[in-house]
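Contributing new records

If you add data, match the layout below exactly. Sequence lines come first and carry their own label; structure lines follow with theirs. Keep one chain per record. Anything else will be rejected by the validation script.
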Amino acid sequence: MTKHRIIGALQVINKYNNGQPDAFTSEDLELLSALANQVAFAIEKAQLYEELRETFYATIHALTETVEKRDIMTAGHTRRVTKYCMAIGKELSLSSKDMVNLKLASLLHDIGKIAVSDEILNNSSKLSYSEQHILKMHPLYGAEILSHIKSLKDVVPSVKHHHELFNGSGYPDRLRGDEIPLYARIISVADAFDLFIYQKGISRDEAIKEIKEKIWIEYDGEIVNGFLRALKKIDERSEI
């Protein structure tokens, strides 16, 4: 029982003592009652953990939806990038822990856009230098926002550096190669592919060509190759 509610039953049968059938005693009942209480506590804890986990992911999705409703230029972008990142992660045989962190990082990679004005986010014309500078601050804003959440400490670096490029020409810190966090390198490829299609308006094949031409220049070649393998396995009819 937990909180005066029965959540299950512990059944014991066929007690033996030195190979012979034996009767249960009051001591057995006391021991089994203690065991049942521990089991009840473990089950309740697991249920609470699952509820917290569901609440956590619901909050993450709510935050990303908030950004996407403000940034009409890239509607659906986060969901698509996350889908591509998960596919790349599988091709790279990432651990289950890495897959969870990659999912969180990809879902939250643009969260810093919450701090960017609607006028800049939804400006369909060429941005001025100062507007570009403000927009390029969104990885730093995102990292700052998420730095206050202890459970996201492994995600913050990738949110901050998802616009770094392999040759060191990206931002905000001009990191290069393996200096760039793994999740950020994965997001960079998925992010670019999606923006080529949905923001620049080029075809899927042209987007692939653009990325392949920049292997080991802007993008990690191993990750690009994993992405290309993943694309072949993605059913386009289910693509978001």
